[in-house]
Write a structure and sequence with these properties.
The complex is a heterodimer of chains A (about 375) and B (about 290).
Chain A: E1 5-9, H1 10-21, E2 23-28, H2 35-44, E3 51-54, H3 58-70, E4 74-79, H4 81-86, H5 88-97, E5 102-107, H6 124-129, E6 138-140, H7 145-162, E7 166-171, H8 172-176, E8 178-182, E9 227-229, H9 243-264, E10 267-270, E11 277-281, H10 283-298, E12 303-308, E13 310-312, H11 316-323, E14 328-333, H12 338-347, E15 352-357, H13 366-376
Parallel strand pairs in A: 2-3, 2-4, 4-5, 5-7, 6-7, 11-12, 11-14, 14-15
Antiparallel strand pairs in A: 1-8, 6-13, 10-12
Helix pairs in contact in A: 1-2, 1-7, 3-5, 10-13
Chain B: H1 23-37, E1 44-48, E2 63-66, H2 72-82, E3 87-93, H3 94-100, H4 102-111, E4 115-121, H5 156-163, E5 167-172, H6 176-188, E6 193-198, H7 202-208, H8 214-224, E7 225-227, H9 228-231, H10 236-239, E8 243-250, H11 256-270
Parallel strand pairs in B: 1-2, 1-3, 3-4, 4-6, 5-6, 7-8
Antiparallel strand pairs in B: 5-8
Helix pairs in contact in B: 1-6, 3-4, 4-5
The chains are: A alpha/beta (about 375), B alpha/beta (about 290).
């Protein structure tokens, strides 16, 4: 098969990745800079018998996605800051009830309506802690258009495998940027699907190894007749107010993420093997950061770059390893230090963590990060 | 006597409702209507939101989904669109449906999606101990209206009709045979159906407003109701201040998930070669 390079936008690549994963249901509400995903799903899904619906708001969008996921479909919605805020309650529902679901969140300047629609990376903590209570969550951050395809596909795989909602955390630049992309051969894509029970006899919808196990998920409408509730529930799905049931459930959900984190972690490193100054970044900020790191290298500074593709669960071992080597870790991000907080937590006092926040709606220029690297050496 | 117990998860009983509550009567009416129609238990999906009424689904032996406050119709929309062959029922309360879920209610009606919505209207927030809802009559007392409610209430059936619901009916927990009949008709309507059931909350509405217990409340509800057929022959002063019960609206129209199915068929006929699309997918495969 001849290689085909297509000029694609980030949102387009996210949609292609979702289709490659087996997307068959999209519910969403228009919001810049994510709307292209909805428009493309509206165009593509009917061609393959999939369903698209424009809901009355983002709350309804994620709710409809959860309903469709319960019937066994692979589902997705896309949004940006204000809409992502509205989705938080039902994101918690999906987390507790273990509903596979993918959300593309193209970050824009906030809080509130903010400065529409300049890029930002201010939803790092909202992605992790936006809904109330302890809960597992996955967030992946593409750094270029091809990765929009790869990580959306990956988000589906992880969400299906572990029954944890997965967020594709892009930003206005990554979603709207166009690059030449060569997509994989469709014959080589093997998307994962949630494990299902073989028979309704004796089915317990939430029976799983308490040590982070993933229960089998039966689709609605196939004779299992099970109960799904946002109340704490026992293995049979029955609501329960018992202390031991609640404790067991929440600990299993947390362990599901903690124990399987190595399977979720992914990053790209350059020059970190011998670096004195490390830069940790993600998304569009990492493009400028990489340019700065390479310039510093050329000028004899031992600088290294760690670009995170997985933000949540937070890649503690990668940061710990970096902190054992680098005397300073520079964290450029388009917010006032959300990722840096995590880096500081893990690095402890082994490395000096330098926060480089930018919140004026503009991308980093490479020289801004370069100056910090040179000042830290 | 019909065997309605087979529609219940009997191991989950007894229920959590207060003595004298009307919600069990409505739940019983739903399963009786389902039995009359001989619906396949495996193809019925019952969805609810949050509140006393919404706890009903946990006791029912179908695929059941107890969702977030006000969102039952949005979750149900996803199920119906993904699986149009399923009979989807929503059980919701007056606060759940008309306050926090009001937007989803009017849009589900506008789309005419095939969902049977049963609104268990006891005119008060019961689960949180008696705050006034958008359905609490003006002047009545609630814990958040200690001097009397000054807000006007909805006429939910008029709202449903105006928003596009194709079957609308109202009954009460006093008029149970009518309630079963209306739910049976609603389940047969291929479109968005609303059955409002006005019922008693003796614990909060009845006690706070000195209406009395369950029996007094049922009589109080009965005295306010007029059958829509009888009302046509009555002078206006006899109907004033009362609510109509019976079948209030029945105007079939194309159902939403069928319309989507037709759209898909049309697109697939016109775009038989999809290789130019974003990603080459096998049609209709999951």
């Amino acid at each position: 098969m001849p290689k085909v390079v297509k000029l694609m936008q980030g949102s387009e690549a996210c949609t292609a990745g979702a289709l490659a994963a087996g997307l068959r249901f999209y519910a969403g509400y228009p919001i810049t800079p994510s709307t292209e995903v909805a428009e493309l799903c509206a165009e593509e899904l009917p061609k393959i018998g999939g369903k698209f619906i424009q809901m009355e708001d983002e709350i309804g969008s994620i709710a409809a996605c959860i309903g469709a996921s319960l019937t066994g479909k692979k589902v997705m919605t896309a949004t940006s800051g204000p809409g992502f805020s509205l989705m938080q309650e039902c994101l918690g529902y999906a987390s507790l009830c273990e509903i596979p679901l993918v959300i593309v969140n193209a970050q824009r300047m906030g809080p509130s309506t903010g400065m529409p629609t300049s890029p930002a990376q201010g939803d790092v903590m909202q992605a992790r802690w936006g809904t109330h209570g302890d809960h597992p969550i996955i967030a992946l951050a593409p750094g270029n258009v091809r990765e929009c395809f790869d990580l959306t596909l990956r988000a589906f795989d992880l969400s299906e495998k572990y029954r944890i909602p997965a967020i594709v955390l892009t930003d206005e630049v990554i979603s709207h940027m166009r690059e030449g992309v060569e997509l994989p051969d469709p014959a080589e894509v093997r998307p994962l699907r949630r494990a299902a029970p073989s028979s309704p006899a004796g089915y317990k919808p939430y029976a799983a190894d308490p040590d982070g196990g993933v229960p089998l998920m039966a689709p609605f409408g196939e004779g299992y007749r099970w109960h799904c509730t946002g109340l704490f529930h026992d293995e049979s799905g029955a609501p329960s107010g018992k202390a031991d049931v609640a404790d067991k459930l929440l600990r299993r959900l947390q362990l599901k993420m903690d124990k399987n984190a190595p399977d979720m972690w992914d990053n790209v490193q350059e020059g970190t093997e011998d670096c004195d100054i490390a830069v940790v970044s993600f998304g569009s900020s990492a493009m400028s950061a990489l340019s700065a790191v390479r310039r510093a290298r050329r000028e004899g500074v031992k600088a290294g770059m760690l670009r995170l593709k997985t933000i949540w669960p937070f890649p503690e071992p990668a940061i710990r390893e970096l902190a054992s080597r680098a005397k300073a870790i520079v964290v450029p991000e388009m917010n006032l230090g959300q990722l840096a907080l995590e880096v500081e937590r893990v690095a402890g006092c082994r490395s000096r963590v330098i926060r480089v926040g930018k919140v004026n709606g503009e991308l980093f220029r490479p020289d801004e990060i370069y100056d910090v690297i040179m000042g830290a050496k | 006597m019909s065997d309605v117990l087979k529609y219940f998860r009997q191991e989950r009983l007894p229920h959590i409702w207060c003595p004298g509550c009307g919600h069990g009567t409505v739940t019983g009416a739903l399963v009786r209507a389902i039995e009359r129609l001989g619906l396949d238990k495996n193809k019925v999906c019952v969805v609810s939101g949050i509140g006393c009424s919404s706890r009903a689904v946990g006791y029912l032996d179908f695929d059941t989904l107890h969702t977030a406050h006000g969102r039952a119709l949005a979750f149900a929309t996803g199920i119906k669109l993904a699986r149009p062959d399923l009979k989807v029922v929503v059980m919701t309360g007056d606060g759940d449906c008309t306050a926090i879920g009001g937007n989803h209610f009017i849009h589900a009606a506008r789309r005419n999606i095939g969902i049977t919505t049963i609104v268990m209207n006891n005119e008060i927030y019961g689960m949180t101990s008696g705050q006034y809802s958008p359905m609490t009559p003006k002047g009545m007392v609630g814990t958040t209206a200690p001097y009397g409610n000054v807000e006007r209430s909805f006429d939910l059936c008029e709202l449903a009709k105006a928003a596009g619901a194709t079957f609308v009916g109202r009954s009460t927990t006093y008029h149970v045979p009518l309630l079963i009949d209306l739910i049976e008709k609603a389940l047969q309507n291929d479109g968005f159906s609303v059955v409002e059931s006005i019922g008693q909350c003796p614990t909060y509405l009845g006690r706070k407003n000195k209406i009395g217990g369950a029996v007094e409340m049922l009589n109080w509800i009965k005295d306010q109701s007029v059958n829509v057929k009888a009302a046509a022959a009555l002078p206006p002063e006899k109907v004033k201040g009362k609510f109509l019960i019976g079948e209030l609206h029945n105007a079939p129209a194309p159902e939403y998930s069928s319309e989507q199915g037709e759209l898909i068929g049309r697109v697939q006929r016109n775009y038989s070669d999809i290789k130019g699309g974003l990603w080459e997918c096998a049609s209709n495969s999951d």
